[in-house]
Specification:
Tetraspanin; mainly alpha; Tetraspanin_EC2_sf; 3 strands; Tetraspanin/Peripherin; transmembrane
C-alpha cells in the first residue's frame, strides 16, 4: 500500500509493503517548497519604491535629501498661509460689514468713499482667501505646480497693492476731484430715480451734510432749492442747509472708523512678503530633493 502526503512546503511519500509477518516501510521526504518560499518572500517585499510603503519611503528620502530643511520650511509656510487665509477672511468680513452698514447708500456711485472702500475690501479679502488656500494646499501636498501658482498669484497681488497705494498717494487730489464729479453727475437723477433720492436723503440725514462739496451743488438740480434732508427735521421748506459737504464728511467717517483695518492690512502685507519668501524656498528645496532622487 502506498500513501502520498503532499503539504505546502514538503512532499512525503510513504511506501508500505504489508503482510502478516511484518513488512518493510520506506519513508521518503523531500523539501520541495523551500525555493518557492524564498521566491514568495521576495515577491511580497517587491522592488524598492514600488510597494505599498513606497510613498512614505520616497517622502522620507525627499525629506532627508536636502538636510531636513524641507520639513521646516513646509510647516512654516503652512502656518504663514493659514494666517494669510484668516487675514483674508477678516478683510472680507469687514467688507461685508461695511456693505451692510452702507446699504442705504447703495444707489450712489461707487466713487462714494465708504462704498468704494467696502468693494475694495471685498475683492482684496476674496483674493487673499483663495491665495492662502492655494498656499496651504501646496505646502501640505509639496506640489511644485501649486507652489509656483501660489507664488505668481501672490506676487501679482503684492505688486498690485503696491501700485494702487502709490497711485492713490500721488494722485489723491485728482482721484478726489474725479469722484466728486461723478457724484455731482449722479445728483441730476435725484428727481427721476427714487432709490437714488432715498440714498442721498439718508446720507445727508446721517452725516448732517448737504451736497457733494457744498449746498450749492443742489441749485442746478432743484432749480435753486434744497432737498428737505439738507436741513434738520421739521424745517420746511429747507432754506439754509447744513454747511458741511457730504464727500468730506463721509471720508472723515471712514478714516475715523477704519484705523484698525489699516493696521490689519499692514500686518497682512508683512505676512504676504514672508509667504513669498517661504514659497520660493520650499519650491527650491523640493526641486533639490527631486534632483537628488533622480
Amino acid at each position: 500500500m502506498i500513501f502520498i502526503f503532499i503539504s505546502e512546503r514538503s512532499a512525503v511519500v510513504v511506501a508500505g509493503l504489508g503482510g502478516r509477518g511484518g513488512g518493510r516501510r520506506a519513508v521518503f521526504q523531500r523539501e520541495a517548497g523551500a525555493a518557492e518560499l524564498r521566491n514568495g518572500d521576495a515577491e511580497d517585499k517587491g522592488p524598492r519604491g514600488t510597494g505599498p510603503g513606497a510613498g512614505t519611503e520616497l517622502r522620507s528620502c525627499r525629506m532627508s535629501a536636502c538636510g531636513g530643511c524641507l520639513c521646516c520650511v513646509k510647516y512654516l509656510m503652512f502656518v504663514f498661509n493659514l494666517v494669510f487665509w484668516l487675514g483674508g477672511c477678516g478683510l472680507f468680513g469687514v467688507g461685508v460689514w461695511l456693505s451692510f452698514t452702507q446699504a442705504e447708500f447703495s444707489s450712489l456711485p461707487l466713487s462714494f468713499p465708504s462704498l468704494s472702500a467696502a468693494n475694495l475690501l471685498l475683492v482684496a479679502g476674496g483674493v487673499t482667501m483663495v491665495t492662502g488656500f492655494l498656499g496651504c494646499l501646496g505646502a501640505l501636498k509639496e506640489q511644485r505646480c501649486l507652489l509656483f501658482m501660489f507664488f505668481m498669484i501672490l506676487l501679482v497681488l503684492v505688486l498690485t497693492e503696491a501700485v494702487l497705494m502709490l497711485v492713490m498717494h500721488l494722485y489723491q487730489d485728482q482721484l478726489d476731484s474725479r469722484a466728486q464729479d461723478q457724484l455731482r453727475e449722479g445728483m441730476h437723477r435725484y428727481k427721476s430715480d427714487p432709490s437714488l433720492q432715498t440714498s442721498w436723503d439718508n446720507v445727508q440725514k446721517m452725516f448732517k451734510c448737504c451736497g457733494v462739496s457744498n449746498k450749492t451743488d443742489w441749485w442746478d438740480v432743484l432749480e435753486g432749492a434744497l432737498p428737505a434732508s439738507c436741513c434738520s427735521v421739521g424745517t420746511d421748506p429747507c432754506v439754509d442747509g447744513w454747511p458741511e459737504p457730504c464727500y468730506q464728511k463721509a471720508r472723515q467717517w471712514l478714516l475715523e472708523n477704519i484705523p484698525s483695518v489699516l493696521v490689519f492690512g499692514l500686518c497682512i502685507g508683512v505676512v504676504q512678503i514672508m509667504a513669498l519668501v517661504f514659497s520660493l524656498l520650499m519650491y527650491c528645496q523640493i526641486r533639490c530633493a527631486d534632483k537628488d532622487l533622480d
